[in-house]
Design goal:
Blueprint (H helix, E strand, L loop, with lengths): L3 E6 L2 E6 L5 E6 L5 E5 L11 H16 L7 E3 L20 E3 H11 L2 H19 L5 H15 L24 H11 L3 H7 L3 E8 L2 E8 L9 E9 L3 E16 L5 E15 L2 H21 L7 H4 L8
Antiparallel strand pairs: 1-2, 3-4, 3-11, 5-6, 7-8, 9-10, 10-11
Helix pairs in contact: 1-3, 1-5, 2-3, 3-4
Amino acid sequence: MKKLGIFLMAGMAALVPMKAQEAVMVVEAHSGKVLIGRNSTVQRPVASLTKIATGVLVVDWAEAAGVKLNAVTVTVPGSVAGLGGANPMNLQPGDSLTALDAMFSMMLGSDNAAAQTLADHVGREFLRRKGRGGDPVAAFVVEMNHLAEALSMRKTRFVNPHGLEAPERVGISTAADMAKLSIYAMRRSGITFVTRQKSRGVTVTGPGGKRSFQVANTNEMVSEQIIGLKTGTTAGAGQCLSLSVEREPLLRDKPDGSKAVTPRRLIIILLNTQDRFNRARGLIGQGWGTYDRWVAAGTPVQEREREFLSVPNPR
């Protein structure tokens, strides 16, 4: 019998194998065609892939509020003290920076303090608009889970905005659910603008004045074709990766002489993998090969529910 680790979270319990196998999901984003899937519905910790949901929620909030992230100043809250994990800008309580710079540090540098800062700021806005008080980060996490519900991520539960694991507080998801989230995220220009950067200069203001940093993208594969999305690693989750791969549109002649344009984008999710970037490189070729054979066969559909990933538009 396999040894099981028990992760308790937010009023529910999930049994997750301590030595669970790698989970894989490869899907063409525009059609939703599932190309490769292994252990894709097994619940697992997803580490900093959690930050995809945080980034999406921040971008959607800014659009709904009619504000630009580079014009919003966020203040680092006291709750970052002792947070642990990546903090490439050495953010300290009381420091301030633009929400856009916090997004760059969070999504490129996997900055946990920046994720907490964004959640604190936007969570306060959520509470203010509802005329309520309370913990702003907790309010933000509630909205993260509302987003998951709206995207039909039925096996996902977020417990914080950064993905760090704590005793009895571990967020979980699946490769299939993270593929849904990634497909939605890459529809948002505010996300693609950030995640396609190889590095970004950011500025923080603290007691000693301004200090500047160059934040490198932890996704070493980012290129003209690979425009996102996020890496993640914790002891419980192992190596994780969400990758978005662009391909030139497919052009076909229509009977009226015009051209039919079919956009193409591959989403690759790896959870608890080894050597994630080389694994992803292999899956890119396998994924596009499977997709091309499907198109050449006339895009047949036998069991839509099983063969396609449906991603609602909650906006």
